[in-house]
Amino acid sequence: TASTWPKKWRRSDRRTRRLNTQLLEAIESHNVDEVERLLNSGANPNATCRLDLVSACHIAAINGGDSLGILAKHGAEKHRLDVLGRTPLHLAAYAGNTRQVAILLGFSEEMQKRVQSEDMSSDVEEDVKKLCPEIQAMVDVRCDDSNVSRTLPSSWKDNIDHSCLQIKGTVCWTPLHVAVSCIRRHSTRLLLAAGADPNIVDAQGRTPLDVIASAYYLDVDIKAENFAEIIKMLTKAGGTYNTMKSKELDNIATPLHTAVELENINAITELLDIGASVSCLNSEGQTPMHLCVKKRLHEPLQVLANYEYLNVDPLSAVVDVKDKDGYTVLQEAVEEAWVPGVCIALEAGADVTLKAYDGQTPVHSAADIGNIDVLLEILSVARQKGIIDCQNEDGETALFKAIVNGNTDCVYALLEEGASIKIKLSGEVSVLHKAAEYGHSEILKILLEHNEGEAMSMIDSLSARDWRGFGPIHFAVMSNSVECVELLLSKNADVRLRTTDSPYFCSTPLHLAAMKNFIDVAKFIVKFDKTTIHEVNSKGWFPLHTASHHGCRDIITLLLQKGADLSGYTDGPRKYRQTAIDMILNTLSMPTEFLSELFDSYINSNCANFHDSNCEINIDYRILIPSVCEMEQMKVIEALLKTGNRYGQRKLLVHPLVKSFLHLKWKALLPFFYVIVILYSMLVSSLTIFTMSVFFYKDTASNPPAFLSPAIWANVVYVSVVLIILQEILYMNIRSKRYFSEMETWIKFGSICLAVILPLSINLAETADWPRHIATLALLFSWIELMFLLSRFPSWGYYVLMFGKVAINILLTFVFIIVGFSLSFMIQFHTQIPFESPWAAFVKTVVMMTSEFDYQSLFDQENSRELATSLIVVRFIFLIFLILAAIVIMNLMVGVAVNDINDLAILGNIDRLCKQVQFLSTLDNLVYNRFFIFILPKRIIEGIKNKRRVVNMIILAPGKPKWKYYKALPTHLREAIFTIAQEKMKQKDNEVNMEEFKKKIDEMHTA
Q1: Which fold has domain 1-169+183-198?
Q2: 930-944: per-residue pLDDT in tens?
Q3: Which of 48, 697, 717, 801 could in theory staple to 55 by disulfide, Cβ–Cβ 3.0 to 4.6 A?
C-alpha cells in the first residue's frame, strides 16, 4: 500500500509525474529545447494524460515541429490510442502535418525530408509505395474506442492539473478519412502512396470519398481549391462511394452537397463525372439542387440542372427530384421567390403538374408567397397543362392560397388565366368566405366584380356548421373589417343574414359585432340599417343582450344611443328571462358607475358659459323611453327596479336624468291622478258623513238635517265603492301578483269591504254595538288609505316614507322590552286594573313610556297594603323601567333621529322614488288600457296619449329664464343637470388641451 512504500520511491514517483506534465506542456508550446531537457531529466517519452489518454506523441503529431522526432528517438510508442481510439497518425493527418505522418509511419530521416515537400515527385511516391507491405497496417488503422485500455504504467502518468487539447473524432475513421475530410492534399497523397485503402467504411458506411470536405461543417478551415484534386486522387486509387447513390444513405451531407455549399464548380463536375446522384438528401432533407435554391446559387444549379446524366428516366427531368416534403426544385425555387431558379428549372424541363406530399403544386406555392413575377413564370406553363384549379389535400386551389395571404395581384392574375371562383372547400367555404374572413377588401371587390358578378350568387351563402355556419358578411364582421362589410352591403348582401343555429344561434352580423366589441363595424351596420338593433337570435337575444352578456361597454353605449331597449326581455321560460339591464348589472364590473356615466352622457351642453344667451343644454330621455316601447314609457325604469339593489343600483333613481324624467312624467299623469284622488276622496267623505249622520245624532238624541240623511249618503258610498272597484279591477289586471303583495292593497280592501257592510249592519242591528266597531275600522282604514294615496305627491311622500321607516325600526327594536315590562307589571300587580290582562298591561306600559307614569295612583295606600309583601320588588322593577324606557330609550330615539337624519333622508328619497316609479308605471298602463281604447272615441284616445307622453328630448337655456322648459323642472333638478353639463364641458376641454399638448410635444420631438 501507499503507506508502506519507501518515502524515497514515492518522492521519485511524484517527480516523474511532474516531469511528464511539464513535457506535455512543452510540446504544446513548441518548446523543443525544453522537451529535450525534460526527456534527459527523466520525463517519460510515453507521458500520457490520465483523463483523455492523450500521449506526448498525439500532441506532437497535431502540433507539428521537431518534438515528435525527439520523442521517437527516445523510444516513444507511436501508435498509442487515446480515449477516442485515435492514434497520433489520425491527428497528424487531421492537421496535414506530412513530416509527422512520415515519422509515425517509420520512414527514415532521408525519406522524411523527401516527402515533406508539397510538390512530392513521382519518384518519391514510388519509393513510398515500395514500403507498403511494411506500413499498410498502420495507415489503415481505424478509430475504435472499444479496444482502448485505460490502464497506464505509473511512469507514463502525468499530474491531473493540466488541460489537454480536445479534438473530436469520428468512429471507425482511418487516417485517410481524416485527411480527406479536411482537404489535406499532401497528406492524402502520402497516405495513398503508403497503401491506405480508399474503400474502408466508417460506422455509418462512408468511404473516404464520402467524407471529402466534411470538416467544413465543423468550421474547420479547409482549402476548397484542392477539393477536385482529392476526388481525382481517390478515384484513381479505386475509391468508391456509398452516400451519393440514389436511395442508399439518406439524411447525410454528401460531397456533392458540400461542393454546392462551397460553390466549387470543378468539384461538382468531378462528382457528377463519377456518377454522383443528385437525388440524395442531406440531414435537412434537401438534395444538392434544393440546396442551391435555398442558398440562391445560380451557377451550381445551372450545372446540376443541365448536366448530361447517364441512365436517367427520359420521361422525367432531373430537376423533378423531390426533397423530404415532396417539393421539386421548381417548387422550392417558387417558395423562395427566386425567379432565376424558377427560370432554370423551367428551362430544364421541370414538370409544373407535380404535387408535393401535401398536394401543393408550384402554382399553389407561387400564389402563396405573392411574388407576381414568379407566378407569371409558372402560369406561362401551367396554362398549357390545365392545372390552375388543381386542389391540395385541404381542397385549396391556387386562388384560395392567394386570397388567404392577401396577394391581390396574384388573385387578379389567376382570375385572368381562368381560375374558377365556384370551387369550394370542405364545409361549403367559398372564395368570398375566405376573402372576408381575412379582411381583404380589395380582393373581395375583385371577386365580386369578376366576370360580370359571377360570384354574386354566393354573397349570402352559409358555410357548414363545423365551419361556424357563416356567410361572407359574418366572416367580414369577425375579421373586424369595416371595408369588407361596407363592400358586401353595397353589393346587396343581407344585413340581417343569420348564421346557422349552431354554434352562433342564428345571429345577425350585429350580434357578432356586439359579441366581439367591434365598435367600428357595429357603427357602420347600425348606420346602414338602424332597425337591426331589434333583431333577435335563436335564443331570443337582441344585440344589446349579446353585448351586455359579453361585457362590451362600447357596443352597449352605441346600441342605447341608437334606440335599443334596456328593458327588453330574452326568450325562454319566465323564470329564466332576463332584461338587458339585468345582464349589464350581473356581467360588468362596477355596473352602477357605468350606468351613471351612461346617463351623464345624455346631458350635453354646447358651451361652458351658462350665462350666454345661446347656451343650450340638451337632456335626452331616449335611453329611458326607447322607440320600441314608446307607449310604455316607464318600462325601462321599472326594469331597473326589478333588478333589486345588490349593486346599489337604486341610487340611479336620484340621477338628474332619471329624476327629471320622473318629475315630467308625474306632471304628465297628474290630471289622471287627480281623478283617482277625487274618486277616493268621494268615498272617504261620503263614508265619514254617513257615519257622522248615524252615530253622532244617535248618541246626541237629535235628528239630522235633511241633507245629512243616512239613506242619501249610503247611496253615495255605494256609488263611490262601485267606481273604485272598477278602478281596482283594472289595477289588478295590470299589476297581478305585485298588487296583492302590498299592505296598502289590503288596507284599501278593508276600507271598501267595511264601507259596503256598514250601511247593511246598521239596518240589520241598529241597537247592537258591532256596527259601531265596523264604522270605526272603516273610517280608520279609509283615512289611512287616503294618506297613502296623497303620499304619491312628491312633496308629501318623502315624509310619509320616512315616518314609516323610523316607526318600523323602533317598533322592531323596542317591542321586546315593552312586552317584558308589561308582563312583569301584570304579575306584580296581581292582574288588577290597569294591568288586568296582557293586552291591558301592554297598552298601559306603552302609555307609561310617554311619561304618564301615574305613580301616585299605582302606589297609593290601598295598593301599598296589597303589595306589602313585594313592594320593594315592584318599586325596583318600576325604577328599572323608568331608567330604561323613560330615559334611555326616549333619548336614544331622539339621538338616532338626529344623527341618522341625512341617511334617512337619502333612503327616504330613494324609497319615495321607488314608490313613485311603481305608481307611475301602474298609472301609465292604466291610462293606456285596451278597454278605454275600445270604448272611447279615437280623438280622445289620441289626446290622452299625447297628454301622458314625455317628449324624447328637452332643451334648457340657462341664459333665458323664460325659455319653454326652464320652469318645467324644479330648481334643485336644474342645478344638478347644469353641474353635470358643466363637468362634461370641462372634461372635453381638458381632452382638447391634452391633444394639443401632445401635438406640440411631437412637433418638438421631430424638430
Answers
A1: 1.25.40
A2: 666 666 666 665 665
A3: 48
